[in-house]
Amino acid sequence: MITVVGGGPAGLMASIIASWNGANVRIIERKGKLGKKLLAASNGRGNISNLDLDETHYFSSDISFVKKVFQRFGIFQTLSVFEEIGVMVKNLNSKLFPYTERSKDIWNCFMYELGNNCVEVVLNHQINEIIYSNKTFYLKSDYTTFESDKIIIATGGISSPQFGSNGSIFQSLHSLGHSLIELRPGLVPIKINNYFSKDNLGAKLTGSVVLENEYGIEISKRYFGEVLFKNELLTGIPIFQISNFVHKYLDKNIPVYIRIDSFPSYTEKQLEEILLKKINLRPKRPISLLLTTMIDEKLIPPFLQSVEIKDFLSPCSSLRLKDITIIAHRLKNWKFEITGTADWKLSQVSLGGIDTSEIQSFTLESKIVPGMYFAGEVMDVAGESGGYNLQWAWSTGYISGESAS
Ligand SMILES: Cc1cc2nc3c(=O)[nH]c(=O)nc-3n(C[C@H](O)[C@H](O)[C@H](O)COP(=O)(O)OP(=O)(O)OC[C@H]3O[C@@H](n4cnc5c(N)ncnc54)[C@H](O)[C@@H]3O)c2cc1C
Predict the structure, then answer these.
(1) Fewer CB within 10 Å: C terminus or N terminus of the chain?
(2) Helix pair angle (75-85, 103-116), 10° resolution
(3) Are strands 25-28 and 2-5 parallel, antiparallel or unpaired?
(4) Do 106 and 98 contact (CB within 8 A), yes or no?
(5) pLDDT score of 8
(6) Which of 224, 127, 113, 111 is nearest to 172 (CA)?
(7) 397 neighbors 32 (Cβ within 8 angstroms)
């Protein structure tokens, strides 16, 4: 008997692969439903993978572990499993979705496979303790103890606990000898120094976003997309991406800034010319209207404050050439000091997890407890937004399911 603990995407993949190989498989899930995060993925659209797949899109203490996993089971092997279970995929700028863009449809395919392969599904049981004795695992829930020859740990991290993953297994894994790399919320909104009023709620800025240190040196990849302002919180895909880089600085109280370039395809000189032309055409128009159609109107007052222009009702012609240069510069360099991130409830992935140096990359079997395997986010691996986290769940679910069986 192989018992898979955790019925998320990694556990679902591990269960069907082990059952295809002829094993007797049981899956135990603490919630009343399997695969809640799969259903929630991309607001129910299910960005299940990305064709641009390699280890550079991941965060881990040992990135070579990620590389080895994808060498063993990458995107094309994943697509062949999807084909086998009847999932038709769609490619949108290298992001893969079910053709219908409904996570529920891929979830249905997994549910059929579980039934068709007689996988025993146990819902509403949280495994609180794992005991390993005489080559048998004893898995204790509040109601009963399950026995198993081998187990696959697919319990996720602690991000978005409302979907099930609550970290309840880590204490027991620690007791069995495994180490935990400290968990931090990833793909999460960022908190900034709050000089925004409630009027900015829902304001948007599209552009390229990067993390900088106090010396103005870029310390993350650049990401492009829409940034949403919600008082002291910034959110949106590029913000989620940046959030994966911030903890190592915040943990050490090192100041760190987010810089937004809302005109990445314009130079500062070009922006100056655009502004001067606008001023020359309507010199009497108030300064408050100068940036209309250039940035979200809700952001114009705080933007002008950030360049120390206070009298928004004065005519544009009162601006000095120096002011125009500063505005053009700021349009490409709006900087905010990051003070923290939102909490676990809004986080899509957990940075940190079980130390991968204690896991064999080829089989995903524990180097400490024979017969115990790992799959998915429970390990110290997290990906960028864009299908990378579900791909990690599919690859590691497959390898652990195959190795255990
Ligand atoms: C809102 C949201 C949207 C997302 N969108 C995307 C996306 O579009 N693309 C993408 O690639 N990634 C996305 N992600 C991330 C992705 O969903 C996760 O990385 C992925 O689900 C991790 O899979 P997993 O099986 O390892 O863990 P989880 O999905 O967290 O599953 C773990 C399961 O184990 C169960 N469990 C935990 N502890 C126990 C226990 N002690 N006993 C029994 N059961 C237990 C939990 O209830 C849960 O069902 C999103 C995440 C969120 C929150």
Answers:
(1) N
(2) 70
(3) parallel
(4) yes
(5) 98
(6) 127
(7) no
Euclidean distance between CA atoms 117 and 15, whole angstroms? 9
- The finding on whether 9 has its CB within 6 A of some atom of ligand 1 is yes
The closest-lying atom of ligand 1 relative to the alpha carbon of residue 28 is 43
pTM over 0.85? The answer is: yes
* CA separation for the pair 372, 137 (Å, rounded): 9
**Would you state the pLDDT for residue 232?**
82
Q: Please report the domains of the chain, with CATH numbers, ordered by start residue.
A: 2-186+348-404 (3.50.50.60), 189-342 (no CATH)
At residue 3, the pLDDT reads 98
Phi, psi of 241 (to 5 degrees): -60, -45
Identify whether the C-beta of residue 209 lies closer than 8 Å to the C-beta of residue 219. no
For ligand 1, what atom is nearest to the CA of residue 47?
A: 8
- Please give the single-letter amino acid code of residue 351: L
Mutate-to-test residue for ligand 1 from 50, 146, 155, highest number of ligand atoms within 8 A of CB:
155
Residue 142 pLDDT exceeds 80: yes
Residue entry with tokens 């769940």: 393
Which pLDDT value is given to residue 230?
Answer: 85
Ligand 1 centroid distance, CA of 98 (Å): 18
Q: CA-CA distance, 357 to 60, in Å (whole number)?
A: 11
pLDDT digits (tens, 9 = 90+) for 169-226: 999 999 999 999 999 999 999 999 866 666 677 899 999 999 999 999 999 999 999 9
Taking the C-alpha atoms of residue 353 and residue 180, their distance in angstroms, rounded to an integer, is 5
Q: What is the pLDDT of residues 345-375, one digit of tens each?
A: 999 999 999 999 999 999 999 999 999 999 9
Please state, rounded to an integer, the average pLDDT across all residues of the chain: 95
Using CA positions, which residue lies closest to atom 30 of ligand 1? Answer: 156
Per-residue pLDDT, averaged over 279-300, amounts to 94
